[in-house]
Specification:
Elements lengths: L14 E5 L2 E6 L10 H14 L7 E6 L10 H13 L3 H20 L4 E5 L2 E3 L1 H8 L2 E5 L3 E3 L14 H9 L1 H10 L2 E3 H6 L5 E3 L4 H13 L3 H13 L5 H15 L3 H11 L10
Parallel strand pairs: 2-3, 3-4, 4-6, 5-7, 6-9
Antiparallel strand pairs: 1-2, 7-8
Helix pairs in contact: 1-3, 5-6, 9-10
Length: 276
């Protein structure tokens, strides 16, 4: 995706809006609870990759239309063709698909902007992965989150779930959800830490966008460092992580936003962060 311009971006397979430095991505196949297709996977992957070069976007909200978040891979447009590939012995095609879906999660984790998921209704399979791969998750009590891969004869090892989900809710809870594929309602999801906050169905998107706006008003370079550190330090020892944080924090102390925050404090006014 070349010359990515958020204000004029018109994706084919989902809706996009951009205002006040916040982008909102809406999965928009409401009649089927917003399932993903080969094409929408690829376009989402490419979009999150492009966001790394879009400093005017300071935060992103991910949601679904029509009272549901995402029902996962489309049964007819994805699952059926994958079964046909398996029957024909086309193992390479299957690996191409699983690598592409994993690349979407990699792109979500690598893009510097904080991602806020607004979840209502069905949030299943790959849809649950999209919520999981976001940085913050706002849900509703009526929502249903299910990592249901085992229900179709597959493992819970999908798109990074075995690595990321235990970080969010702990190893034991993640193990149960991935082994059983059962659904949890929003109250449970908030209680165990999958959701950061519960909201009403009529307000969940607005509350997620308000949180994204607050992040967009903050120091973008600092948020990007925090997001990256949260990702990479999982593989570090504590001493290595402390050394890493010393280096990145020292670099941020040379930023304009650090100086602006100090000057605003001295002048007793709210700092206006410029993202650099």
């Amino acid at each position: 995706m070349s010359a990515f311009r958020p204000a004029s971006f018109s994706p084919t397979h989902f809706q996009w809006s951009f205002a006040d430095r916040v982008a909102t991505i809406t999965l928009n196949r409401p009649g089927r609870r917003n399932p993903l297709t080969f094409e929408s996977y690829a376009e989402l992957r490419d979009t999150f990759r492009a966001l790394a070069g879009a400093p005017e976007v300071r935060a992103v909200v991910l949601t679904g239309a029509g009272g549901n978040f995402c029902s996962g891979g489309d049964v007819h447009e994805i699952i059926g063709p994958l079964v046909a590939h398996a029957d024909a012995g086309r193992a390479g095609a299957l690996l191409d698909f699983t690598r592409m879906t994993g690349d979407l999660v990699k792109a979500m984790r690598a893009c510097p902007q904080p991602l806020v998921a607004a979840v209502d209704g069905t949030c299943a399979g790959a849809g649950a992965i999209l919520a999981m791969a976001s940085d913050l998750r706002f849900g509703t009590a009526r929502s249903k989150v299910a990592f249901l891969f085992v229900r179709v004869g597959l493992s819970g090892a999908d798109m990074g779930a075995c690595a990321l989900l235990p970080r969010i809710i702990g190893h034991g809870r993640a193990s149960e959800l991935l082994f059983t594929g059962r659904a949890m309602d929003g109250t449970e999801a908030e209680r165990i830490g999958f959701y950061n906050r519960l909201a009403g169905p009529e307000t969940v998107l607005a509350e997620a966008q308000a949180a994204a706006q607050a992040l967009a008003d903050g120091p973008a370079a600092a948020h990007a460092v925090t997001k990256r550190a949260l990702h990479v330090e999982w593989a570090m020892g504590v001493d290595e992580a402390i050394d890493h944080e010393a280096e990145v924090q020292a670099r941020l102390m040379q930023s304009g936003d650090f100086k602006r925050a100090y000057e605003a404090f001295v002048a007793k006014r709210t700092p206006a962060f410029e993202g650099s």
